[in-house]
Amino acid sequence: MAKFLHMILDLFDPVYNQTNKTTDTTATTGNDLSVEMKTYYSDYLIDMAEPELVHDQWAQKRPIPKNGGKTIEFRKFAPLPKALTPLSEGVTPLGQKLSVSNLTATVQQYGGFIELSDVLMLTAIDNNLVEATKLLGSQAGRTSDTITRDILHTGTNVLYANNKAARSALVQGTDKLTVRDIRKATRKLKLLNTPMIGGYYIGIIHPDLAFDLMDDNDWKYPHQYVDTKNIYMGELGAIAGVRFSETTEAKVIKAEELPGATGGAYTVASYSSNVITISDELTSANATALVGKTINVGTEAYTVTAATAYVAGSPATAATITIKETPGTDPATNDKVYAGNAGKGGANVYGTLILGDHAYGVTDITGGGLQHIVKQLGSSGTADPLNQRATVGWKLMKTAAILVQEYMVRIESTSSFATTESN
User: Fold this and answer.
1) pLDDT at 19 over 90
2) Domain extent for 278
3) For a surface tag, which of 22, 98, 138, 384 has the fewest beta carbons within 10 Å of its beta carbon?
4) What is the pLDDT of residues 194-237, one digit of tens each?
5) Strand pairing partners for 7?
6) Do residues 325 and 275 lie in contact, with contact meaning Cβ atoms separated by under 8 Å?
């Protein structure tokens, strides 16, 4: 977790009272912040950003090099083979060399700001800089966390709950996360000799799944950790060799909206030779938008290679969808066609990450990745001739990379709850 951020704080004129911890927005002592105020606002932004950075906690971190370009290099050391040849008396064996491979990633820049008017600053009761910093810190933290999370969820080491073969087969409320799923994930990691973190693997879990998991008869209440200083952010407990951190920012995948669909799905009218005829009246634009998408009928997922629009007339020409894959079971009349990125029938799918040490890397925000920027009234020059506008914002240089695919497992499941939106 980040402890310090590089701050650029050239602000307007409030005075911070160190004694009673308040800011006097009516005082006028110039436009520069005192050292105490810079520290105050710096700490405040850190406090707001840190709780959102759950997905960064266990990463290999690399600083942003100044004037070093946009590429970050992560290093992976290959394990040494077993030394099974006996030593000869008095003979020094051949030495071994470290085998290092490099993985590079390109950082991208993100940011946001809030504009504050001079009238608001003069008349508002609340300290607007504090409120703006609070909101921006949360935004920066959630943005940074999501960047890492979404990259981790591109991992290729995947298990599906209840022994299902694919995401499209996961049934809402039936294929929930269980302790058995956790044990299967840790088995995979152990067979690959994935290093642990402090004697445990790490699990990142959504509260909906935490609810289901603790309903499992195999769930055991977490023991009292001896090393209480290293309790992780949002930690829920431990089971099957995994310490879980609970966060609402854990990945949830909801079915995409199909273009022109009524109630989120099309209705099958008939099927023949990889062509699904539907009852919905698709426009030409809707048909074009469908091509290349994945759809779900029953428990099977298909890729759309072509689509035709509904054409009115006597008789009318029905809309059709041509699929690439040959179905195991033909779609039947009145079956529903959903977007294929989620579970069966458009069910929300949750991703639970089980991580080992050195599985992934991120850029280190303490190394120059995150800046807090405040512009005083009138700092825009001729664009603000009457000193009417000030801004407070943040800027982030960030990327993440999976270093060893085998060192992480993603478990996909549904939940008892059906209302969570995708994130």
Assistant:
1) no
2) 266-341
3) 98
4) 999 999 999 999 999 999 988 888 775 544 444 555 555 556 67
5) 372
6) no
Give the C-alpha separation, 198 to 238, whole Å: 13
> 76 - beta bridge partners?
101
Contact 266, 336 (CB under 8 A): yes
Is the peptide bond preceding residue 315 cis, with omega within 30 degrees of 0?
A: yes
Q: What does the alpha-carbon distance between residue 344 and residue 301 come to, in Å, rounded to a whole number?
A: 9
The rounded distance, in Å, linking the Cα atoms of 290 and 280 is 13
Looking at residue 2, what is its pLDDT?
40
* Angle separating helix axes 128-152 and 35-49, nearest 10 degrees: 40
- As beta bridge partners, residue 337 has 266, 297
Do the Cβ atoms of 262 and 288 come closer than 8 Å? no
Copy the structure tokens of residue 35: 């050292």
- pLDDT tens digits for range 361-392: 998 766 667 787 878 787 777 787 887 888 88
CATH, residue 392? 3.30.2400
- Supply the pLDDT for residue 180: 94
How many domains are contained in the chain?
A: 3
- Same-domain pairing of 12 and 138: yes
Task: Tell me how far apart the alpha carbons of residues 55 and 368 are, in angstroms, rounded to a whole number.
Answer: 19
The answer to whether the CB of 159 falls within 8 A of the CB of 169 is no
Is the same domain home to 146 and 14?
yes
**Residue 50 DSSP SS3:** helix
Q: What is the pTM of this model?
A: 0.77
**246 and 168 share one domain:** yes
Mean of pLDDT over the chain: 80
Whole-number pLDDT of residue 121: 62
Per-residue CA distances from 168 to 193, 245, 300, 302, 421 (Å): 31, 27, 6, 10, 18
* pLDDT score of 389: 82
